[in-house]
Amino acid sequence: MTRLVEVPVQFDDRSFDQFVSGFAAAGKDGERLLFDAHAAEWASPYGLVGLLAAGEAARRAGGEKPLLTVPTHADVLRYWARAGFFREAAGMFEIHGRVPRGKGDESDVLLPVTPVRAAEDVHAVVSRIQQRASAILASELGLDPKATMGFAMALSEACQNIVEHAGTGGWVAVQSYHWRRKLARRVVVIAVADAGVGFRHSLEPTQAKRFGERWGDAAALEAALIQGVSRFRDPGRGQGLAGIRRYLARWDGKIAIRSGTARIAIVPRWDDDVPLQEGVPPFPGAQVLIIIPEQESAQR
Amino acid sequence: MIQHIDVHAVLQETVSGVYTDLVTRTTGRVVREHIERAIAAAEPAFAIARMDFTGVGCIDYSCADEIVAKLLRTRPAVLVLTGITDGHREAIEPVLAGHGLAALLERPDGTLDALGAPQAAAALVEDLVARRLAVRSAGGTIALTLS
Questions:
Q1: What is the separation of C-alpha A240 from the centre of its chain, rounded to a whole number of angstroms?
Q2: Is residue A184 within 8 Å of residue A139, measured between CB atoms?
């Protein structure tokens, strides 16, 4: 029997929990899953890489490829193709519906959905993003041209979390778009997702004792993002997320990390997200969202 | 005498002839180990190693830690960093400060600036001047006495 998982009509970090609820419920008995995206009208980079992570988790649990019905709306379908989603989805899902060809090189797609499995992939991502992001960051977001390198550093560190901690591969995507609903400004969004072991499992051997009864997904996220701890005893570890935070503080950006049953965010003034959420529906691995907004004229 | 290390050349030789960025722990480790071997092989040992970052694109925090901080922790020689951009500095400086370490940044005009933890940076400059490896000018700038 096949169990249905609905992909939200507007699929982004805010509707991800709704998606995960359906995913967790459908996946309980180990039946084959059908991810139904036919009604999808929009998906953020976070939604796209999150869907791939769900596909990987479903395949791992069920042994066979889950099914995916593609969006029926032609524009949506074209965007998913342009964003490089179907290139990666082909290996993860049995796809139902006609998929258009897309090169993934449109100007708003700074980095199409790209697999990250090893250090070499991070090199390729950083090299590619520097070529494409510089003009967008400076001209459209009003960031100092020097900020491009910091952006590449942040992206590199976010991707390295997969290589160093996930125990499996993952995906990254970067896009620039006008965020009308929330900010009425342009933003650049980095989304990184994997279906690996997650922060709690990664940090457990070195941190669980220190937290005692408080130990769990939320405490692990707090330890990693706020306290900068790492699973490695090497004192130089844990610099990556701290560096991302410094960069985002400078450019009024946001980071949110979801792992297991918790979600943590560094919330800038322009956002009303919750700093720490516990008890969200369980999902494997880690999903990272980084948003850098267009700078207001006073900041420029 | 000063040992010269061309970091971009080391990256190209050891990791990739294609990429110019110092990113990921793995890359940092390979580059550092190559530099460590070069430093260990020098006979007699140099008091100062000048690491030239010209041609290097992006450096991330992991690589800055793996290369610069670990070289200073394992081989407490004086490191002079040259060819450094603002972006490189953004990665290296907090990493050094986090470890309580310091290195010297050499500007194109030859003057030096200490990077890293303030106390360690001040001590490094004092030590160099005391050992006559560097001199202070009347204007308060510092420069190496060796080339």
A1: 16
A2: no
Tokens of A267: 């919330």
Domain extent, residue B6, equals 2-144
Span A199-214, pLDDT tens digits: 999 999 988 998 999 9
- β-pairing, B134-136 vs B142-144, is antiparallel
Count of structural domains, chain B: 1
pTM: 0.90
What CATH number corresponds to the domain at position B46?
Answer: 3.30.750
Distance CA(A134)–CA(A139), nearest Å, equals 8
Burial, B39: exposed, middle or buried (Cβ in 10 Å; 0-12, 13-18, 19+)?
middle
pLDDT tens digits, one per residue of B85-125: 998 999 999 999 988 999 999 999 989 999 999 999 999 99
Check CB contact of B79 with chain A, cutoff 8 Å.
Answer: no
Contacts of B19 in chain A (CB under 8 A): 123-124, 126-127
**CB-nearest partner of A130 from B57, B86, B88:** B57
Q: Which domains are present in chain A?
A: 1-97 (3.30.750.24), 104-300 (3.30.565.10)
Q: Which DSSP category does A31 fall into?
A: P
Supply the DSSP string of B59-94, one letter for each residue.
Answer: B-HHHHIIIIIHHHHHS--EEEEES--HHHHHHHHH
Measured between alpha carbons, how far is residue B30 from residues A233, B55, B57 in Å? 20, 18, 17
**Contact call for B58 and A235, based on CB within 8 A:** no
Provide the 10 A C-beta neighbour count for residue B107: 12
Residue A287: enclosing H or E segment and its boundaries? strand A276-293
